[in-house]
Amino acid sequence: MFTSAAFFALLLTITFAKPVRRDLAVHESRENIPSGFVKEGPASRDTVLGLHVGLFSNDMNGLEKALYDVSTPSSPLYGKHLSKAEACTSIIVEEYVKPKEDSTTAVLDWFKSNNITTTKDTPAGDWLSFSIPVSQANELFDADFTTFTHQSTGKQAIRTLSYSIPQSLQGHIELIRPTVSFPTPKAPVFQVPRPVHANVSAASCSGGITPACLQSLYGIPTTSTSQSSNKIGVSGFIDQYANEADLTTFLQQFRPDLPSSTTFTLETVDGGTNPQDPSQAGTEANLDIQYTVGVASGVPVVFISVGDGGDGFYDITTYLLGMDSPPQVVTTSYGETESDVSIAEANKLCNNYMQLGAQGVSILFASGDSGVGGSNDASCSAFVPTFPSGCPYMASVGATTGTGPETGASFSSGGFSNYWGIPDYQASAVSSYLSTLGSTDSGLFNASGRAYPDVAAQGYDVEIIVGGSAGYVAGTSCSSPIFASIIGLLNDELIAAGKSPLGFLNPLLYSTAASAFTDITSGDNPGCNTNGFPAASGWDPVTGLGTPNYAALRTAVGL
């Protein structure tokens, strides 16, 4: 038996071994495990977690104003993008984004008092990273880190349904991640079972969508570009690898006017790789590379392969923000269900897109492939927004099918965000659509939310090469790289003319360039046991403003 002295000595040891938690308050929580995940059990106490803390930025309202100033055609500052480097301009993004000094000091002091070392993730210092074992994380944040498995992929993730921070830090810490968010990037592309057309290089689209078909349909130029500083970035996730041999075959068959040696460069994040064994060629990655290299004639393309060692969407943005010269266009053919990501994390990631847009980077995402059903489809009782298409600082790309005329693809995801309100640039266009829609689908969506997609492009019967063989694929993941190629070509012409690249596109798209799109007025995007939204004259939640007309876009951007 313990003596009284021994008992009190043990009690003191236990008390001082644990972090002081008396002022902790719940910072983020979620009631349920997201659909598609199952709980396995408590995470091993010894597992080391790589965590990130997001600090409140100094002046995001100021950065948002600056973003719109440089992105709105009627603004006298249009095209005068901000820089992250003070040597380039006196107006730098970091001045808006960096936390206040007292926030940084308070957070660093708290980590230091708990013997935790942090490093800066971003140049502005608004993101810090640190590593601690599960046992310490559970104590520090009054959390219950648990192992969850995503049923369809089998991938496991350690998350908690709630965590707390000291009350004294609530005005300084925006969020800790990954904690309550369950992001699982999905590649929207899917196979189309049909015979490969023999006349693959014909400008006619009757045999499927090829670069020659797109050039004919949208008026895309075939002449090679001249500006080596102009680049297109292609995001790669979930072990999707872009095969160089397949690209060579694709160019030989579909772009014989381009050198078959034309290729792409590779950047890696989180231990990403790009093995070249034909058996590892990725359908999604090959599609994205072949319809950027093969459509944006001569524009340098960078494949950014993100490994499984981190959190893809977040990590690629911090990587891009750390680059001195990021690609002027970045296309991503992956998405998530909006509600799987916490509001705090979604906002912080969206603000990263704001920073990139202010520096002159056009961020494009495929809108998704489940109509209004998100990842739940028929089981949903209300329309399910996709992420990050609801973020107002990037352009979402929907899909069309057919060429005589084009119609909205039934799988093209679109709708209204539950996280972000409608931005001014699209308020008029969306209001007109809602008036036309009337009471249809009333109560199933947030009519005051940011609406998407913004634009559309071909997304069905798109021919690619995978593992040396031709085949057809479909999805909005076809549409996003196609549209990115068009922006890349316009940027090349603008830079050659001594002008700025387009950067954040949406204020331009909904104003000066609105008439530069072919309006798609037929089709719908069913889901949740409904017909979804119908396409209509003007903007709609299936095809956005419509599909591009290159000549009209040249005029709209001042070429």
Automatic annotation (TrEMBL):
Record-linked PROSITE patterns: SEDOLISIN
Source species, domain of life: Eukaryota
A Gene Ontology cellular-component term: extracellular region
EC annotation from Swiss-Prot or TrEMBL: 3.4.14.10
Record keywords, A-Z: Calcium, Glycoprotein, Hydrolase, Metal-binding, Protease, Secreted, Serine protease, Signal, Virulence, Zymogen
Molecular-function GO term, any one: tripeptidyl-peptidase activity
Catalytic activity reported: Release of an N-terminal tripeptide from a polypeptide
Residues of the signal peptide: 1-17
Binding site for Ca(2+): D519, I520, G538, D540
SMART domains: Pro-kuma_activ
Keyword match Electron transport: no
InterPro entries recorded: Peptidase_S8/S53_dom, Peptidase_S8/S53_dom_sf, S53_propep, Sedolisin_dom, Tripeptidyl-peptidase_I
Cofactor(s) this protein requires: Ca(2+)
GO biological processes: proteolysis
Active site: E284, D288, S477
One matching Pfam family: Peptidase_S8
Peptidase S53 domain location: 208-559
Cofactor note: Binds 1 Ca(2+) ion per subunit.
Localization, UniProt: Secreted, Extracellular space
Role summary: Secreted tripeptidyl-peptidase which degrades proteins at acidic pHs and is involved in virulence.
Protein's name according to its UniProt entry: tripeptidyl-peptidase II
